[in-house]
Amino acid sequence: MDKSKLDNRRLGGLTVGAQGLGCMGMSEFYAGRDDAESVATIHEALDRGVTLFDTSDMYGPHTNEELVGRAIADRRDQVVLATKFAIVRDPANPAQRTVRGDAAYVKQACEGSLRRLGVDHIDLYYQHRVDPNTPIEETVGALAELVAEGKVRHIGLSEAGASTLRRAAAVHPIAALQSEWSLWSRDIEAEIVPTARELGIGIVPYSPLGRGFLTGRYTSAADFGDGDFRAAMQPRFQEENLRKNLAIVEALRALADERGVTAGQLALAWVHHRGADVAPIPGTKRRTYLRENLAALEISLSEEDLKRIEDAVPAGAVAGERYPEAGMRAIAGETRAKED
Question: Which residue ranges does the record assign to the NADP-dependent oxidoreductase domain (predicted)?
Fold first, then answer.
């Protein structure tokens, strides 16, 4: 693959490749863990021109940052390193979570991430979820101080609502919004994407393959391994919804077969065609799937192609929510008003 295809996306003032690598599943949430293969996947991604690597302090918790830090240690200058803070997990029960965006915690979390990653700065530092109890002005103000100190280069938000984006951008430039965006998660298109573009904020879609569902590899709950949170927690993967959603994959696969590509590659190509300010981060811990995902960059889609895909997988056709009720309350987040 021509590496130049990876060098053409802008996230605010940050240049990244057209496709990054999400590292979450290397350490948690999806069944199976193989650190050696994960490191090899990161190295091959670098060899193939990938620059944007995404992690978070809550993945593991903490162990994913340590893994990524080891993998990039001798190639730091090739990496646009993104990590996240704000989701705080109880050490005694990691399933219990709170969200913090207060200034003291922002700085504490950054120091922890720098230490675990083994770096002196973070290229793109996101608030992982909006803290409803802390004005976004306080959170972004603390992040701006980290930028001034050289510990952070660019600021991002994840799953923020439109008004929060506006308030945040009034404090400091926001380089990127990371939110779920794929053929089966299109709710950000109505208000959030236009707002981000108005403000010059790039978009980093996570789960651009519908957490793997759009690849066609999962046809029943039995296909998920022990400990896989999709089958355990996500409504779209519960058996009744999953059966209904298989029709989406079949329609996508029929179009993909016409082009001699996989359903997943066609779904990922659709995301690539959302704009020059969009850099998806499909996640994988295996080199085989990394190669398959990168090959999607070779697929060119016309306006007619895009219409056929969207007609086959209409927005709103998916059965089930993205997250359980508590998780849905945390996305497209807004914060309380700034105190004067």
Answer: 20-312
